[in-house]
Design goal:
Distance between the termini: 8 Å
Domain Luciferase-like: 12-309
Organism: Micromonospora sonneratiae
Structural class: alpha/beta
Pfam families: Bac_luciferase
Number of helices: 13
Order of helices and strands: EHEHEEHEHHEEEHEHEHHHHEHEH
InterPro entries: F420-G6PD/mer, Luciferase-like_dom, Luciferase-like_sf
Helix content: 40-55%
Radius of gyration: 20 Å
Protein name: LLM class flavin-dependent oxidoreductase
């Protein structure tokens, strides 16, 4: 298989999360990823860095605007030191409501703001050990540091930065400035081919870069069981969760699933169902088109559809609406499948 297999581990505790990452590393996962939702992505990544030996460690994704670029750069250098140069800084904007309501940070011009954030982080990583002034004046970000010097050089003066993006403008930005792009959790080969890759190519062309300058990472909910129907139902909750977001209407319509999504939107809006039980209203065809489910062999065949389109696939076990014991079962079957594909 020419597509790299990477993994987003799950755990109720940091210890369980780290153990799952170790198992995935032994199974052959090239990267283990830490998200930012119920835990801090950077703290989780630090735990994974200390608990693994050879796999790359990435954040998928760290929220870019809820920390200062200085703090993000320092955390990136610390994790890179813990991992001996194995860290990938995945950055994303999040949505407006999360920024303003959860984190009390401003939401303005997200595309130029992220571009400037990346520039400042790269400047700090490259120069913070030199003791020289560091300055940046942009539309959204301002930096003026004098008389500051880290006591030792970083492990690397350039840490890879991947950008998460859904819309065309943010995806083009990844093509222009990033070392890699990380997709939305539901990214079919169709969506990758029809929407994401053209935007990435536009960004690459604008910057005078080529496809070889960018790693394309597809994210996928992956549910494996000897009974395909069981695997399909485990994955249903994640699809239902994303289907409640009205702004994804074009995405679902692209797959001929507009009516399926609207039924879920209507039920959710009427209060008929909470986000924990949306899987009951997700059709099998939604699951089949937007997730990787089935037996290990069936999923391996589905993964082959990304060859020639993506460089890596980030697999994650199903979690939405499932009790911990079921998530653990799904995770163990997924890690076993990764080992069988290696």
């Amino acid at each position: 298989m020419s597509v790299w297999i990477t993994y987003a581990p799950w755990g109720e505790s940091l210890a369980e999360l780290t153990e799952a990452a170790r198992q995935a590393e032994r199974a052959g996962a090239e990267v283990v990823w830490a998200p930012e939702m119920h835990r801090s992505a950077t703290i989780s990544a630090a735990a994974l860095a200390a608990g693994t030996e050879s796999s790359m460690i990435g954040t998928a994704v760290t929220l870019a605007f809820t920390r200062s670029p200085m703090i993000t750069a320092l955390e990136a250098m610390d994790i890179d030191e813990l991992s001996n140069g194995r860290f990938i800084l995945g950055l994303g904007t999040g949505v407006r409501g999360v920024n303003e309501n959860w984190h009390n940070v401003r939401w303005e011009s997200p595309v130029p703001h992220l571009r400037e954030t990346v520039s400042v982080i790269r400047q700090i990583v490259a120069n913070s050990h030199r003791g020289e002034p560091m300055q940046y004046q942009g539309e959204c970000e301002h930096l003026r540091i004098v008389g500051y010097q880290r006591p030792a050089p970083p492990v690397r003066t350039s840490i890879p930065i991947y950008l998460g993006g859904v819309g065309p403008a943010m995806t083009r930005l990844a093509g222009r400035i990033a070392d890699g792009w990380i997709s939305h959790e539901l990214c079919s080969p169709l969506a990758l081919r029809e929407t994401a890759l053209p935007a990435l190519e536009q960004g690459l062309t604008q910057a005078g870069r080529t496809r070889r300058d960018l790693e394309v990472v597809v994210s996928a909910v992956c549910s494996i069981d000897d009974d395909p129907a069981t695997a399909r139902r485990w994955a249903a909750g994640g699809v239902g969760f994303y289907a409640t977001v009205r702004s994804y209407a074009d995405f679902f319509a692209l797959h001929g699933l507009g009516e399926d999504q609207q039924r879920i939107v209507d039920r959710f809006a009427q209060g008929d169902v909470t986000s924990s039980y949306l899987g009951d209203y997700v059709s099998d065809r939604m699951i089949d088109q937007l997730t990787l489910t089935g037996t290990a062999e069936q999923v391996r065949q589905r993964l082959a559809e990304y060859e020639g389109l993506a460089d890596a696939v980030k697999l994650s076990p199903p979690t939405h609406g499932l009790p911990p014991e079921v998530i653990r079962q799904a995770q163990q079957r997924l890690i076993a499948a990764i080992a069988s594909w290696s």
